[in-house]
Amino acid sequence: MIRSIALAAALFATVAAAQDLAAYNKGLSAYNSNNFEDAARNFFEVTNTTTDNELRLKAEYYLASSFQRSGLPFTAFIYFTPIVKAGPTHPFHTKAVEAFIALQEQLNDDYLIPSILNNNYDKFNDAWATLPLEVLARINYLIGRISHRKGLLDDARQFLEAVPDTSGYYARAQYLLGITLADPRFTAADDATRRRNLEKAIDTFQGVLKIKTKQVDYTDTQQLTWLALGRTNYNAGEFQKSVEWYEKVPRFSKYWDQSLFENGFARFQNDDLGGGLGSLQGLYAPQFAGAFQPESWILTSTIYYFSCLYDESKASLAEFEKIYLPMGEKLKPLIEGDQKDLNKFYTLVSQPENDKVPRAVLNWVRSNERMLGLFDMLTEIEKEKTTINANQAWKSAKLSSELITYLDQNKGTLEQVAGNFAKSRLMEAYRTVKGFGDQAEIIRFEVAKAEKELAETGVDTRKVLDKQTLYRPHPPAENWNYWKFQGEFWRDEIGYYQYTLKRGCPGTAN
User: Fold this and answer.
1) φ, ψ for residue 133 (rounded to 5)?
2) Pair 316, 304: CB distance under 8 Å
3) pTM
4) Which SS3 state, helix, strand or coil, does residue 345 take?
5) CA dist., res. 57 & res. 383, Å (int)
6) Domain that holds residue 78
7) Which sign, positive or negative, has the C-alpha torsion 136, 137, 142, 145?
């Protein structure tokens, strides 16, 4: 009796194994015929029933790959993840890593895939050395970016330098390498070292602009590099060079408002006060009504202060207070409430229009590249859920319920990440408004002090100004025309404003 039971069990196992193999072969046939929906259903069955470890590992890979080829990149990421984490013990480990790299770009994922690669690099770097060179380059770039974000600048430098010039991500890596070298925390033991690092950063950025090979998003990288050269030359005290780089950023690019603002600083430091005001004037055009640039009014007030134009300085402070102090008041209760409820912060910024967050702040938070990436992934999850729910064959195979569960779990995680990032940005916006509000009070005090001192010395500022001749700005070339600004912003004039200033300081002469 015992022998017959054992024989029956053996026969049952043999039959089950044959059924599993048949399902696997059926899935493989569908896969090779580009019928990835049927392939996924069969591979899913095998992963849940087979006791043959080798067969299960194969089915795991082809299941994940079927999702990828079905146009379900986030679902594919979920199923490739355990294969990547398993390491070389899984026969399809390196293939899964290659798939990860493709999915990272497709999903615009700045969090999940880069973090998994970073967390497993030390364990599996020997196995990853056999990967295609472009895949390795992408891994080094992604880990370099994470290291930079964490402030591990020397690690970031090493990973970014490992990206070869044959890679499509070489320009991005070199740009971020320049940012790393220019960071004041990077081995800045003394002024000489700091100066050398800035020079290395400038050389690195200039090298980015000379790259001729085909690069990923090169136009975007090029514009970021112009901004970086403006900033780095500014920090090196090369203000005229800084101005020249800022002015290369194209009009109406997504970085244009930032370049206008920073160019205002560079021109101010270069003793071109009228040029500084001209750069800032563009930010006050209706096209930038939704921009968050509180410091622009503080800088405008400061430039007028140094010109001893105290009424104009006070008027600029009044504009800052009219526009931005109400934003601070509106933000205050949002960030002083329960900061542990990250879903609340995600909800606050998840929609492009709401009445709880000031429009300029909401635009500033939502336009951040990392936040945009999170929005993209959350949108992709909802899209894939809709596709999966519509697949009746997957529903009957109980595949849909598992996929939806995993997608919802990841959705919850990403909403927490997005909520935490939104919280940080909203708190930063509030601190920024409050900080510049404090600066405004200091400038107001200094203006009042200067006005008092002038009154005590008997200087008549009006007479000082009346003695000066106000010349119109000099056109930069013969094919330029001069038009006096009369309060109207014309699209083709924004960004080309130039003030000429009288100066109310005692002893000022033309």
Assistant:
1) -60, -40
2) yes
3) 0.91
4) helix
5) 28
6) 15-107
7) positive
